[in-house]
Amino acid sequence: MIVLPLYQLTDTLSAIEAKGDYYRYLAEFSTGTEKKTAADQSLMAYQHAMVVASGELSPANQIRLGLALNFSVFFYEIMNSHERIIGVYKDSTLMMQFLKDNLALWTSELAGGASSYVYSKWGQRIREMGCRPYRASLLNTDFRE
Fold first, then answer.
1. I want to staple 20 with a disulfide (CB 3.0 to 4.6 A). Which of 46, 106, 118, 134 is the partner?
2. Cβ neighbours for 116, distance < 8 A, ≥ 6 positions apart
3. Predicted TM-score of the model (pTM)
4. Helix axis angle, 32-56 relative to 6-29, nearest 10°?
5. Quick one: residue 2, left, alpha or beta (phi over 0 = left, psi -120 to 50 = alpha)?
6. How buried is 60 (Cβ within 10 angstroms: 0-12 exposed, 13-18 middle, 19+ buried)?
7. Where are the domains of the chain?
8. Could you tell me if 30 and 38 are in contact, meaning their C-beta atoms sit under 8 angstroms apart?
């Protein structure tokens, strides 16, 4: 097994994802056997990239999240396989929930709301494990003092 530095890995994954995107675009405008061929090529590229990304990158990695988004568009638009979309997003769901919770908290604070912990089912689980949830007010701390 060859281990690539992270920058080479992400460049390689981006290139494989671009191949999947290219063939997906061809499949959108093609018909008959040309559409099937383009869809098959797109599927192979996306699957290859997902296998590599799942094994090497965290679910929060922007390359992996972008790949999951594009792969799900492929299943929806080209394959009309709405069930498969759920499988593509499964690994990214927790990370997206944290982002959503933080965005809601920060938006509330910008609107003049009081600083508070992120209370969600994920935040509750963190508290049950004995950890303190993320506190957005720490961003307002001036560490230069």
1. 46
2. 105
3. 0.63
4. 160
5. beta
6. middle
7. 6-80, 94-140
8. yes
Q: Is the pLDDT of residue 114 over 70?
A: no
Q: Are 13 and 49 in contact (CB under 8 A)?
A: yes
* Residue bearing the bigger pLDDT, 44 or 1: 44
Q: At what angle do helices 6-29 and 62-77 cross, to 10 degrees?
A: 20
Do 20 and 45 touch, CB atoms closer than 8 A? yes
Rounded CA separation 17/48 (Å):
9
Helices (H) and strands (E) in the chain, counts: 6, 0
C-alpha span between 32 and 9 (Å, rounded): 35
The pLDDT of residue 128: 57
